[in-house]
Design brief:
457 residues; alpha+beta; 5-stranded antiparallel sheet; 19 helices; globular
């Protein structure tokens, strides 16, 4: 386990607000050097985009810093994955900033499986155009999220690193100075479903009777806290306090998303009794209703698995896709549904198959049962199916040893992210055959960071 883990207080801050920051232990001269090298690359070559890290490999020291590693392990588990997408964001002097936006959004899950990580190589006071974030907005999929709370700037000294939920509303704020501002954005993923706390956890209870954050969303925050604690701390039905189940089900489609979210996390107080109504919601035409029903089903937990398995075989198509989505979000709680999900790999709908493959990455991590079907999916011309299959095999890890040849065939795929994820899947499989493939690949594709148009050899 990594050192310098987040505290309970920091985890609570992240769960409520959707972000947390740490400072590296690297000296100021290090960040000055990164800033200077970034400016040179931008001036001579333009934005390096996904090649940021191989172009300025010294940045890896930021992610090797104990404070950064501790935060990543705390939020995503110790086997977190730096994904192939990364991007340096330049906020020039005198800029007007960006509009508020989400990089993720509408993912139908509130669980922490992806993170945005922002590194600032220069002092970033509010005048220099920091990243502005909207606390609590990561729970929202509509524009209501952009205004749910006042914007908060992420300011700090050079070496500040922020960890933000992938769905957090954010923007570059106006740069009112005559100095450049850079922010290096990286995307990280959770590879293993939580089985126990991975931060410096001392307290089991979410709040011990004291409201942390908005009182109306305590059940939502509590669910996320318990999810991070692992399945032994799963939610248990509590008193419904006189609410009507039918009224709460109707509220899942309330035009005010905050009200709908509150209802979604109140419904699970009815436990298994709520499952039939929630599964019927997956047949609905409203995205709002179906999305909030998925949140509620995941808060209900294991009692929802049998009904969702049955829904995998039902019409309409979107109901089957929603059922696969909900089972995937249940993770290891839905392991009994793996055979049904494997069967759904043959569904006539590509949308259902895409959701099913993603679900198998979180539900079947402890067995080989899904691997043959996922290997077959690697050859599918549908980009979503192929990429989700690669990522699912990476999550299944050593149990996916039979996938080495199929993954090797994707190392020169036309999609850059399929290529990158295939490399990581082979790394996680870790057999001698997988390592041999990786070494051969590295020998022919190694990037030289000091080769450029002014120095070609």
């Amino acid at each position: 386990m990594a050192e310098n883990l987040l505290t309970d207080e920091q985890m609570r801050h992240f769960i409520i607000n959707g972000f947390v920051t740490v400072n590296t232990a690297l000296p100021p001269a290090f960040h000055d050097d990164i800033f200077a090298k970034t400016a040179t690359v931008f001036d001579k070559e333009g934005n390096p985009g996904n090649n940021l890290l191989p172009r300025i490999p010294e940045i890896q020291s930021v992610f090797d810093d104990a404070n950064v590693k501790g935060a990543l392990a705390s939020l995503l588990g110790p086997d977190y994955y730096m994904q192939p997408h990364r991007h340096p964001h330049y906020n020039p002097p005198g800029s007007k900033g960006q509009g508020m936006h989400q990089d993720g959004g509408k993912r139908w899950s509130h669980h922490t499986r992806r993170l945005l990580v922002f590194y600032y190589p220069q002092d970033t006071p509010v005048e220099r155009g920091p990243t502005g974030v909207v606390p609590i907005s990561h729970y929202f999929s509509t524009n209501e999220g952009s205004q749910v709370s006042p914007e908060q700037p992420i300011t700090g000294k050079a070496g500040t690193v922020a960890f933000a939920n992938y769905d957090l509303w954010h923007r570059a704020m106006p740069n009112q100075t005559d100095e450049r501002r850079y922010m290096m954005k990286f995307l990280y993923a959770r590879m293993t479903e939580p089985q126990a706390p991975t931060w410096a956890n001392k307290e089991t209870e979410w709040a011990n009777g004291t409201a942390l954050g908005p009182a109306e969303h305590q059940e939502m925050f509590k669910h996320l806290w318990n999810w991070h604690l692992g399945p032994k701390n799963s939610d248990a039905p509590s008193s419904s306090n006189g609410e009507s189940l039918s009224d709460l089900i109707k509220a899942l489609n309330n035009a005010t998303e905050s009200v709908a979210l509150q209802a979604a996390y109140q419904v699970p107080k009815f436990g298994e009794k709520a499952v039939p109504a929630l599964v019927r919601c997956l047949h609905g035409e409203s995205d709002m209703t179906r999305r909030n029903a998925c949140y509620a089903l995941n808060a209900v937990g294991t009692p929802a698995v049998d009904a969702l398995q049955k829904a995998l075989k039902e019409a309409p198509e979107h109901a089957r896709a929603n059922a696969a989505e909900a089972l995937g979000d249940l993770g290891t709680k839905a392991e009994p549904a793996v055979p049904a999900l494997v069967e759904a790999l043959e569904d006539e709908s590509a949308n259902v198959r895409v959701r099913t493959i993603e679900a198998l990455g979180t539900t079947s991590q402890s067995s080989t049962l899904a691997v043959p079907g996922l290997i077959k999916a690697l050859e599918n011309p549908n980009g979503g199916i192929k990429r989700n299959a690669v990522f699912a095999l990476a999550r299944i890890r050593g149990n996916a040893a039979d996938a080495v040849e199929g993954l090797e065939n994707l190392l020169f795929d036309e999609n850059r992210y399929v290529r990158g994820d295939a490399v990581h899947a082979l790394y996680r499989i870790g057999t001698s055959a997988a390592k041999d493939v990786l070494v051969r690949h590295l020998q022919t594709t190694r990037w030289c960071p000091i080769t450029n148009r002014d120095s070609t050899f």
